[in-house]
Amino acid sequence: MYKYNEFDHGFVRNRVKQFRAQVERRLDGTLTEDEFKPLRLMNGLYLQLHAYMLRVAIPYGTLNSQQMHQLAMLAEKWDKGYGHFTTRQNIQYNWPKLNDVPDMLDALADVEMHAIQTSGNCIRNVTADHFAGASADEIEDPRPTAELLRQWSTDHPEFQFLPRKFKIAVTGSPNDRAVTKAHDIGLRMVRNEKGEPGYEVIIGGGLGRTPMVGKVVRTFLPKTDLLPYLEAILQVYNLNGRRDNKYKARIKILVHETGIDRLREMIEHVFEAKKGLHQAPPEAMVAAIEAQFAPPQFETNSVDEDRLSKLVGADPGLRSFIETNVSDHREPTHAIVTISLKPIGGTPGDATADQIRTMAGLAEAHGYDELRVSHEQNIILPHVHRNDIPQIYAVLKAAGLATANIGLLSDIIACPGMDYCALATARSIPVAQELSNAFEDIKLQRDIGSLKIKISGCINACGHHHVGHIGILGLDKAGVESYQITLGGDGTETATIGERTGPGFSYEEIIPAVTRIIDHYLEIREDEIETFLETFRRLGAEPFKQALYSHQQEAA
Amino acid sequence: MSIIIRDDGFHPDNWEKDGGSFADLEKFGKDVAQNRADKVCIDVPNNTDAQSLYENFDNAAMIRIAFPSFADGRGFSLAKQLRQLGYEGRLRAFGHVIADQYGFARVCGFDEIEIDDELAKRQPETQWLARIPKLQASYQHRLLGEQVNQNV
After folding, report:
1. Which end of chain A is more exposed for a tag (fewer CB within 10 A), N or C?
2. B40-44 and B62-67: which strand pairing?
């Protein structure tokens, strides 16, 4: 894990000091509300429906137990005893007071954390594969790259006032768990034919009201050219991105309107000029960052298979937990444990201070002191010896954290929706809760199999509904909530934008509508192995549309 | 009246008092042709193509880039491009720039900022001087060798 050096410490403290002064200057009137707004946003502070909201950066979703403990402290001292983990691998506090925020930021700095650039029209907190450094399928750990980008983008003088927000994701695995094709820039770590490491660079992906799958702008970018190349992309975007309409200001619109080939030429032109002007990041600095992500000293004792199988045989709960929430680790004696923050009927991504502490304690005792936040709003213990899984399960169960639903129907992504968000046009959390309640039987969920349901409470698509196998978008139709359904979306390396089925459903109708889709899938799937997405790809949307709308025609 | 901010604080704007003038790129071209450009500042909007100024780098007494709103960051990239193309003359940002952006503007290549009296009154000198960039204090300096322009 990355440890702050003296420079990082000084930088973050100075930033808190600056923000403290900005709050004072807002209160004494030397900053207008208009001027204060982007300044508070670039320090993670939003104004929501009921109160301010502070979004804390968890760079590339990685944190240690001490940091996790501090997040629990913040939840208790300055919020209502809980925090909300988000699809950007961050945590949000929904009830801080403006005057307290500088103190919260100081408390974060105490444990090498901050809220810098988690909002605003700047380069946002860089995200990465949540299984980085642990998964069996990884080519290279994406986190040293993500950390390099965190440093490069932090307080970048040229790119703090972009046309719109700018999100970068990095993956080091062919199985894309970082949704790189739905980001402004997606970086896939690859090797060229000579075996040299580099990146495939994807630009112009994004969800929101105009969902687009990103396009490859460079098939191979040598590692050392990364920063000048990204400088070039950002400069071309800053100068040419639209500023006349905030809904057309993301780079995806520039890609769409300019064309990827012309834009590639513009970027390459700037890149060629920049390459000669900048030094490459000093090798020693890059090496020092890489060294900090070296894997922990894994325990070498063998797995006690007899004991494990006895325990699993005696406890169906443990069995389904292992089958559903545990993934392969690069060390065969180890495993990756995903802790679901989606209890049946709960708010996706919410955790109480006590639960946050429990997870921190587990990382300390059994997880080499490491935790991850996934964009699917779950917490991960990336390195766990398989012998420890029964004990971890027992602790999680006692804390209400052992729901065995990872990748299943109730592992729903939902944005905060109208319960918190000022932009929302409909509720999303209650829809997630009711859906989860309607399918509370985990056995039934397991029978349904892999299914990603994603819910957004407005067109901005924070709930990633476009890439849900079943996506739900809550809109406002003449003062009444109306939910549109999309089908067949996919956020992985085979990224696809979901297809709209037709007219929306009222709040009362949406759960029965989704139920009809799932019932129909169970009827028409080829066998129990064929997933919902596979069935959809085989048969298209038509049979599901029939299931969704035919009863309405009968009624009419 | 305008106030000019540099690293040594607020100054009255004496550009025109001292015989200087401002011209858009087209008029500047004519001034050069008539040998009348030695005290003329090229005044450009922030969507100007940096390359279009290149041939006048040596003729311009100053280049002034407009900031229509502090939230419009194009001026930062334009300044950066002018410096990268080799412009070594005086570079001024003009309009709605706020004290919190002073460091960004300096690192991107501006020598000075021109603001109106109202803003200068609301955000006094100390707020600007607090944001003088410290050379060693940026990630970009560490990673890319970024320098602060020390022109003036």
Report:
1. C
2. parallel
Can you give the pLDDT at residue B151? 52
Contacts of B101 in chain A (CB under 8 A): 160-161
| Three-class SS state of A73 | helix
Check pLDDT > 80 for residue A550. Answer: yes
Instruction: Say whether pLDDT at B45 is over 60.
Output: yes
How far, CA to CA in Å, does A93 sit from each of A118, A349, A352?
13, 12, 11
Helix, strand or coil, per DSSP, at residue A514:
helix
Most A CBs within 10 Å, among B72, B100, B123, to test the A interface? B100
CA distance B113 to B124: 13
Distance CA A83, CA A4 (A): 24
Q: CB of A158 within 8 Å of any CB in chain B? A: yes
Instruction: Please report residues of B whose CB lies closer than 8 A to that of A266.
Output: none
More confident residue, B151 or B2: B2
Closest approach of A129 to chain B, Cα-based (Å):
24
For the cut 50, the answer to whether the pLDDT of residue A258 exceeds it is yes
Would you call A244 helix, strand, or coil by DSSP?
Answer: coil
pLDDT at B152 over 50: no
Whether the CB-CB separation of A415 and A407 falls below 8 Å is answered with no
Distances (CA, A) of B65 to A367, A524, B42, B110: 54, 64, 9, 9
**CA-based torsion, B120, B124, B127, B133: positive or negative:** positive
Pairwise CA distance, residues A191 & A30, whole Å: 52
A-to-B residue pairs, Cβ atoms closer than 8 angstroms: 98
pLDDT exceeds 50 at position A481:
yes
Model confidence at A556: pLDDT above 80: no
pLDDT tier, A55 (very low <50, low <70, confident <90, very high otherwise): very high
Cα–Cα dist B30/A141, whole Å = 58
| Contact yes or no for A353/A82 (Cβ under 8 A) | yes
- Residue A425 near residue A359, CB atoms below 8 Å: no
ipTM confidence score: 0.96
A5 touching B (Cβ < 8 Å): no
**Residue B147: how many other CB atoms lie within 10 Å:** 12
Strand partners, A57: A114
Q: In terms of CA atoms, which chain B residue is nearest residue A238?
A: B74
In DSSP terms, A200 is beta-bridged to A188
User: What is the reported pTM?
Assistant: 0.94
